[in-house]
Design a protein that fits this description.
Layout lengths: L9 H9 L7 H8 L9 H25 L2 H6 L9 H28 L39 H9 L4
């Protein structure tokens, strides 16, 4: 009786959808819990964990280097480290570089965008004119219209009709 006992859990539901009709006994769950037949961790999880730990360690080292006075560092035997100038200069250089790259990216987008007076901003090679169907057909008999662009005259009429 006990070896035919099976149970459902949220984690097992996914495996049921993969293996239709498969049942999991209590003894198979014990084998999985003991590590038999269990695959290793996902590499992205390992990289994420190592990256998170490295970031915390690097931040602590940077803060100690930037804020602890030189005599204290000398008293614990640390004599070789960069100048305290770089504690301010390095973050400043990084911030200026990021802002410059952002402005450069925005400028490139403005340069590649056609001017508002260009017809390329209204029509291009992917534009589709709306299909016309026989107006004599009743509304229930008409097919569903394929997707198409809305003409600029229709857009203006919808947006500015109350100003006319």
């Amino acid at each position: 009786m006990e070896d035919q006992m099976s149970f459902n859990s949220p984690r097992r539901t996914l495996s049921y959808s993969r293996n239709r009709g498969a049942t999991l006994s209590v003894f198979e769950a014990d084998n999985k819990a003991s590590g038999v037949g269990v695959s290793g961790p996902n590499p992205s999880e390992v990289y994420g964990f190592v990256g998170a730990i490295s970031t915390v360690v690097a931040t602590v080292i940077f803060m100690v280097w930037a804020y602890v006075p030189d005599p204290w560092l000398h008293s614990i035997g640390i004599f070789y480290y960069p100048s305290k100038y770089w504690a301010l200069a390095l973050p400043t250089y990084v911030m200026v570089t990021v802002v410059t790259m952002l402005l450069f990216y925005i400028g490139l987008n403005f340069m590649s965008t056609p001017p508002p007076t260009s017809l390329n901003s209204i029509y291009d090679e992917n534009s589709k004119d709306p299909a016309c169907f026989d107006p004599a057909l009743e509304e229930d008999d008409r097919p569903i219209e394929p997707y198409s662009d809305i003409g600029i005259d229709q857009v203006n009429e919808l947006m500015f009709k109350e100003w006319k």
